[in-house]
Design goal:
Layout: E1 2-4, E2 7-9, H1 26-41, H2 50-64, E3 71-74, H3 77-86, E4 93-97, H4 102-109, E5 117-121, H5 126-130, E6 135-139, H6 151-158, E7 164-168, E8 185-189, E9 201-205, H7 207-210, H8 250-265, H9 268-285, E10 295-298, H10 303-309, E11 315-317, E12 320-324, H11 331-342
Parallel strand pairs: 4-5, 4-6, 6-7, 7-8
Antiparallel strand pairs: 1-2, 3-9, 8-9, 10-12, 11-12
Helix pairs in contact: 1-8, 2-8, 3-4, 9-11
Amino acid sequence: MREAFGATFIGPEGYLNTASYGLPPKTTVDALERVHRGWAAGTIAGPDFDADIATARAAFASLAGVPAGSVAMGSSVAALLGPVASSLPDGARVLVAEGEFTSVSFPFAAHGGRGVTVTEVPLERLPELASEHDVVAVSTVQSADGARVDLAALRAATRGTDTLVVLDGTQQLGWLRLDLAWADVVVSSSYKWMLGPTGVAWASYADTLAERLVPHHANRYAGGLPWETTYGLPLRLADDARRFDISPAWFPVVGAAASLSWMASLDLERVTAHSRALADAARGALHLPPGDSAIVSIPAEHAAKRLQEAGLRASVRQGAARIAFHLYNTQDDLDRVVDALTS
């Protein structure tokens, strides 16, 4: 076990794969075990999860810096971007970064049959070209190598234009606080740096955009009073972004509530400093270019194999080993990486 930022983690030794999925604090594991025991005993009911859903929604809003009333709950980033892509007019022009995570690009590319075009450009050119497009969609921290988009430049380039800005914070939220509230859409999964289970994702839709979106997944839980909209017409949905909610994945949302509310209570500046310090030290020791991310891409030959042989958990993205330092990682993890790759 390992203690980090006041929480206990069961087994993160040598775990450097948070960019794939984060490890839960023990309190989250305990919460999930309790609800699964209740399931087995037949003692839980749908309304028992309402408080967890509200807690998780509020925690995401806090981490993303957006109003809770603008936040919709979904199962994945792609599902939450589907209504955005569907709202675009025929022939809309969408701009994405080269090598962008496909949950961001595919929902728009799927509308190619009605003339929607998706153009890939180098990440650093996104601000320069954004105003020439109807939509710019980008991960604030790139999944493959941890590169960060210049948000200040992107905001300046799109201010006063009709360009819709879509930001995916999946590889950012939980280790880095940035101002995202100005964007039209902010989406994120819960299962990476926010340390929740898979199956729960969130989207904040600006009011001006939400007015144009069709709630394609309209369901009982998207109702104004969820337990009173179970049967019959007319359509009666929530007035705020809850009208875009999917019916909740009960057990994952319990874990999301536990992990996200804990993450939202932390001093994120300390988490950033801790994660960045380890990543910067790794880049220095491995003679890699400087960076500003908790994700480190290591293009050295056989790097992934050497990390695996040393008992370290990492991943491979675009031909390079990818490691990620989060709040539960330590100097020992860093030393093991350096030893594995420089011995």
